[in-house]
């Protein structure tokens, strides 16, 4: 039994107060069929909204089975409403994208977490629409749409059905049919409350309540009430699975977005471009990083390079003088006295003109020892490296780089051929592995000859330009570097004040680490730039979702009327936002992969797509959906059901 005690409802419109209900006291007994009548502005619709728990009174008491509920929270009202009350609206309020049976089953999304289409079909059979289950509202007449609304009001087996002008928009034939259905429902024990201004409809009720100026003017019983249904008004216990609930919201969100394909595609566009940019930029950056690492690793591992520096005389930096020249004896002493040395190779360098047949080429000449092969990872791809015996005998043997093979040998195998270096004949004994370009220099534009041959037969040097030193372990490099500098400064009697300039030791591991860090920074910078488009895409999603909230305001009101809580509306709109982001993210990953492959094939750039970058892009796209979807979803969830239903 429902009892209203001195219910007042006051609306404020600016400085004006409108007393929609001015102290209404009314009892609705279980199993009754009540018609509430009155002229426009009499308060009958407001009374129905209060009875249906869609609105709360300003003052007064609302009791169900003796329990006061007029001041409970909105979500608690939604739970009570969906389990005890069914609504039939004058405007039908059917969702255009759903079929008749889906519209009927919609309230179960909030009461049972899943729409039972079988039960919905049975209810449509009951109201005479068994052959129209898969028809959409625009394929149904007004009377058929109202019967769908009636079936929807019954899907949760309510104790009371509230009908707001159920025949107001119908022809006389449909009106008779709808009233017949309402009478049958009442005969089954369901309490029926009809709000109408039509006298012929009011005369069909068992009890007639007339209103004027927000008050009950008369209350006339015309026939005994039916035997009420025995089900309690208490909320039915339904075992809920949170995972199934979330999955259902995602499914509904996906279907909603499919109904607006163009707008959904435009919403996805920003995310798609952003994710594609992140994937492609990270792939290009990672490829560049791997290229750098490969180039540096080809220089050798655990490598120290000792070079002459410049000393200062009279405060002025001088050219490298005799006191800072490196010698072969320096190399021998370093190998003898410094611990943890794995290999050592002194070297000289210079430019020379090389020739074969009628072709000549200016290139770099490196003179070194046989240890250079392992220290610098220069094992020939064809032929052999020269030996220490070749060096001691100053043999005229040479290894050539890939560029030399291409430019003066025309790409043919040069091993065994005779070529000239600065007009001195040399026999080619091997072809060096390709190293690629390093900075502004082509590392393959090189010839390597024995050290003593280079010093005394080609370049005319009595000193060495550098000494490559391979250390046993990375941990021993710092100690070895200090020992080498201490030894070489002592051998050349360099004053303490000038020891920092006289010689330098380049740690290739430090250079490699610095370049690797730089490439990582550049990759992150590229990703950050690409992420900006993700944020822009997220803002686009927020704008589209805000438009969607505005367009679907009446739908939100309907969903709240049939039992959706704030949380349900929030999750639904948030799910739609995440679906846009996730699908856009997946499409963006595929597009990014395609762009990466295209760049690699067309431009020849090194690229590398990692699982981490794909996950990062996908995670960002999903996060964007959540972050930028929260505000529209929250705005939708906070709409008042009555205000939303009245929205035009």
Put simply, the count of helices is 22
- Order of strands, main sheet, comes to 6-7-8-3-9-10
Q: Summarize the biggest pleated sheet.
A: 6 strands, mixed
Residues in β-strands, percent: 15-25%
Overall pLDDT confidence: 84
Global Rg: 44 Å
| Fraction in helix | 40-55%
Low-confidence stretches: 232-237, 314-322
Label the overall shape. Answer: rod-shaped
Structural class: alpha+beta
- Count of strand segments: 24
N/C terminus separation: 35 Å
Structure explained in plain terms:
- The protein has 648 residues and is an alpha+beta fold.
- It is 46% helix and 22% strand.
- It has a six-stranded mixed beta sheet with strand order 6-7-8-3-9-10, with helices on both faces. It has a six-stranded mixed barrel with strand order 14-15-22-17-19-18.
- A hairpin with a 2-residue loop joins strand 12 (312-313) and strand 13 (316-317).
- The two termini are 35 Å apart.
- 43% of the residues are buried.
What topology does this entry show?
Layout: E1 2-13, E2 16-28, E3 33-37, H1 44-51, E4 59-64, E5 67-68, H2 74-84, E6 85-88, H3 100-105, H4 108-111, H5 117-126, H6 142-154, E7 160-164, H7 172-187, E8 191-196, H8 199-202, E9 207-212, E10 215-221, H9 242-258, H10 261-297, E11 303-308, E12 312-313, E13 316-317, H11 328-337, E14 341-356, E15 359-368, H12 372-375, E16 382-383, H13 388-392, E17 397-400, H14 402-408, E18 418-421, E19 424-431, E20 437-438, E21 441-442, E22 446-450, H15 451-458, E23 466-471, H16 477-491, H17 499-502, E24 503-507, H18 508-551, H19 553-561, H20 566-602, H21 611-637, H22 641-645
Helix pairs in contact: 5-6, 6-7, 9-20, 10-18, 10-20, 10-21, 11-16, 18-20, 18-21, 20-21
